[in-house]
Each structure stands twice: as C-alpha cells, then as structure tokens.
Specification:
The chain is α/β, with parallel strands linked by helices and 287 residues long. 37% of the residues lie in helices and 15% in strands. α10 links the parallel β6 and β7. The mean pLDDT is 95.
Length: 287
C-alpha cells in the first residue's frame, strides 16, 4: 500500500480542489490519502463525493499551534468534525486569518512591496487565507522567485520583517481537544529547520507524555540525519512515525506520494481513532 497522510487543497492553501486532489492521488498510484487542510474541514464533502474507486480517504486537519513563542503544526486524523469545542477553536484560528493577512500586506507595503489585499484575496479564492497566498503574490510581483523564498527572515518567516501572528492553539490543548473528538495526533515536520525555529526535543517528550500519538519523520524538509534522529526519538518516546508529501499542488514542489507511511502505522492510527473512519472510494463523480 502507498499511503500519503498530509495533503492540502483549495480549502486552505493548496492549488488542487478537493476533487482534483483525490483524483490526482489515485493517478499517482496512492491507495490512501489524508486531506489535512489548515484548521478547516471544508473540503471533506467534495473530496468524498469525488473519491475514485480503489482510493481511501482519511479525513483530517493541520492545526496551527504555538508554544514558548515557536509555531508548530499538529496533524489531526479521523476526529469528529462536529465536536463543538474543537470546532470552536478551529473557527477562532480561521477568523484570525484575514486580519493577519491584511497586516502582512500592510507591512510589505511599508517595505516597498506593491502587494495589495485584492491580489492576495484573489489568489486565496475560497480557501483559508494564509502566508502561502501572500508569498504567491510576492512571486507574481517578481519580489521572490518562489513561495519558499518568501519564508525567510527578510519577509514572512516567523519573526520576519513582514510577519504577523495569529490565534493559535497551545499544542497540549490541541492534543486534548483532538482526543476528546476521537482523533489521533501527529506532530508535523517537527525538525524542519528551514521553516524557522523548532521546538526542542524536551517539548516533544512533554507532548508525548500528554498523549501525542506520533511524529512526521519522512518529509521533504527533513534530511537523512534528521530522519534518523527522529526515528530514534520516536522509539525512545513510544511514538508512531509517519511519512507524507505535504502536497500543496502547484504552490510547492512536493509530489503526491513523495514520502509515505508504513501500512502498519496507518493501521494503528485507524485502530486508535474513534471519531471518524476512513472512507473507501466507490468511483466518485464529484467535481
């Protein structure tokens, strides 16, 4: 089985619609794909309606968190999307995205970058607006060569000149909320240093003690030594290890299935989840 447990659609900051994403996942030879848009479950219905035969959909989300001033992302799988407390927190994060993006546009304008809110809103479309949309506006203007090039201290990286914070969950609260909603938690790309500051391993150990289920090891932002260290750490802490593409369509270079999760790990994730179940494809026709 080929299993990719971290992808994004136009419901947040990907460029494939949810329907396109599941069709592209099937075309890439995947057996299982997780839809993990940022702080939203809005893509579920469309992805499910379009799900091709032979492909299984894992519903999830990537939750924005912060601890000790350091941003991190928590992948949540197979939780009940209607559970009220977790839904309320996701709404708080989403509601803060527009004023945050407007703030980054204002800072960029102060720095001489002629980006406009109208441009960013056009790029975001119906998705949850975020830094990648602002970064793409900068690419359109020729300020940077790629979306990744905008995520540096000079521009949009955490603490960067044009960075603006937003409401984010405490990761310990995120674990508690996801578990209460019957879901499973995996710390996304925990040592992706190219993205900025990362939490120390002591915090990962504390998260494990608080009920964290796993860490994302095989990811394009982790080199071979980093992956080896994370596997060792996971073994020490009793954590599951996953692999995934973090696919964003044309917005980033990662390909669907570029990194994958071991079927036994996937099986354990589904065994632990009680809030929702994987959806087997039946030859969907949704667009």
């Amino acid at each position: 089985m080929r299993i990719d447990l971290h992808t994004h659609s136009t419901a947040s900051d990907g460029t494939d619609t949810p329907a396109e994403l599941v069709r592209n996942a099937a075309a890439a030879g995947l057996d299982v794909v997780a839809l993990t848009d940022h702080d939203t479950t809005r893509g579920y219905a469309e992805a499910t309606a379009a799900l091709p035969a032979g492909l299984t959909l894992v519903t999830g989300a990537e939750l924005s968190c912060r601890v000790d001033g350091i941003g991190l992302h928590m992948l949540a799988y197979l939780f009940d999307p209607e559970e009220p407390e977790l839904s309320r927190e996701r709404e708080l994060v989403r509601d803060d995205r527009v004023p945050r993006a407007r703030g980054m546009v204002a800072k960029l304008q102060e720095l001489g970058v002629p980006v406009t809110w109208e441009q960013v809103a056009r790029i975001a479309g119906d998705g949850s607006v975020g830094r990648p949309h602002v970064a793409e506006a900068m690419v359109e203007l020729g300020v940077v060569g790629s979306v990744s090039d905008a995520f540096v201290p000079e521009w949009l990286a955490d603490g960067g000149r044009a960075y603006v914070g937003k409401h984010e969950l405490d990761p310990f609260d995120a674990i508690r909320l996801v578990k209460a909603a019957g879901g499973v938690t995996v710390f996304a790309h925990p040592l992706a240093l190219k993205r900025g500051r990362v939490v120390p391993e002591t915090v990962i150990a504390e998260l494990a003690s608080a009920g964290l289920d796993g860490i994302e090891v095989d990811h394009t932002d982790h080199d071979a030594p980093t992956r080896a260290r994370l596997r060792s750490l996971a073994a020490e802490l009793g954590l599951l290890t996953t692999g995934s593409s973090d696919y964003h369509g044309g917005r980033k270079a990662a390909r669907l299935g570029e990194c994958t999760t071991d079927p036994e790990i996937y099986g354990e994730i589904t065994r632990r989840a009680t809030g929702a179940f994987p959806v087997p494809g039946a030859g969907g026709t949704g667009r």
